[in-house]
Structure formats: C-alpha cells, structure tokens
Amino acid sequence: MILFTERLMLRRWKASDAEDLFEYAKDPDVGPDAGWPPHKNVRESLNIIKTVLNGPEAYAVCLKTDEKPIGAIELMLDEKKMDECELGYWLAKPFWGQGLIPEAGREMLRRAFEDLDMSKVWCKYYDFNNKSKRVQEKLGFVYQYTKENCDVPALGVKRTDIVNCITKEEWMKRNDKA
Predict the structure, then answer these.
(1) Contacts of 140 (CB under 8 A, 6+ apart)
(2) What SS3 class is residue 99?
(3) Residue 19: which of 48, 57, 52 has the closest Cα?
(4) pTM of the model
(5) How far, in Å, CA of 141 to CA of 162, rounded?
(6) Coil, strand or helix at 98
C-alpha cells in the first residue's frame, strides 16, 4: 500500500531504509519527545524497522522528490476495539515547521475513516510536546483526558499523557463529507 499527498509518499518500511532511519533517529531532539531513545547505530535502526515499524498500517513518510524516509506515521490497530485505532508519528528535525506531519496525518485520517471504516482515532502527546499538540489541533483532535505518571518503558521514566480523539462524524464535518 502506498498513499500519496500533495508533497508526500507514505509507503511501507524496507530493510534498505535502515541507514536513512538512523541518520534522523539518532538525533536526541527527535525520539525522546516521542518516547524512545536516540538510535545508536544502523543495526538498531534495522531492528526497529523489523520489530516496531512493521504494523499493518505503519508507513515511512517520504518526500515525493526522492522517496527517502524522513519520518514515520502509523495507525495502530486495536484488537479489542476493531473500529478504533491510535495515530502515532514523528518527523526528522530538518523537516519540522513545514506542515508535513499534518499533511500526512490528514491522509491517515482519511484512510482510517474511509478505507478502514474506523469510528474513532485516538492520539496522545506528552504534556511538554507542543509540536505534537499543534499537529493534533490542526487535524481536529479533541481533548479527552490527562493521564499522569505514565510509564515510558523505552526511556525508563514517567510522563504525563494528554489524550485526544477524533470521531468519524467530527472528521466528516471538518472535511465537508457529511
């Protein structure tokens, strides 16, 4: 499955993406804000591609111009609530501030509600992560609750989660599909 937006191609991760992933995932300003430590080497990045970025709705965010991954976006499906999922994403620092993740997120919400027939999409961010907060606001997510003292196993810390949601009905209204 390959998805396209005006500037982006969202495609499945490949083992050959490991070097590009490492280039951006080693940056200490990227992973920790999303809950994971900077990658230590290309081997670790390859392992992450094989074990983490391998879900059925996990995509490499690529510019159409060169198709190299500059971030990740995923609809994490819920086995208990088949009509709900969670949106997760990150973007390499050189590409911040260009509206790329909101652009990718709009396509992922379209996929969730139109192709996968989801009724709700959840999304969360750590209380200090204003960039992620802003992405969710742009996408129309609505505040649901705050959860304090959440374990972040990959970093061995506790943080406060802000949990947001958008329903299919809200998305349809925002996108004139009602």
Answers:
(1) 166, 170, 171, 174
(2) coil
(3) 48
(4) 0.96
(5) 11
(6) coil
Number of domains in the chain: 1
What are the phi and psi torsion angles at 51 (to 5°)?
-115, -20
**Residue 99 φ/ψ region, left for φ over 0, alpha for ψ in the -120 to 50 degree band, beta for the rest:** left
| Residue 99 CB partners (closer than 8 Å, separation 6+) | none
User: Is the distance from CB of 70 to CB of 64 less than 8 angstroms?
Assistant: no
- Ordered DSSP codes for 16-58: GGHHHHHHHHT-TTTHHHHT-PPP-SHHHHHHHHHHTTTSTTE
Distance CA 175, CA 166 (A): 12
Per-residue pLDDT 10s for the chain (178 aa) are 899 999 999 999 999 999 999 999 999 999 999 999 999 999 999 999 999 999 999 999 999 999 999 999 999 998 888 999 999 999 999 999 999 999 999 999 999 999 999 999 999 999 999 999 999 999 999 999 999 999 999 999 999 999 999 999 999 999 987 6
CATH number of the CATH domain containing 24: 3.40.630.30
Domain housing 170: 3-174
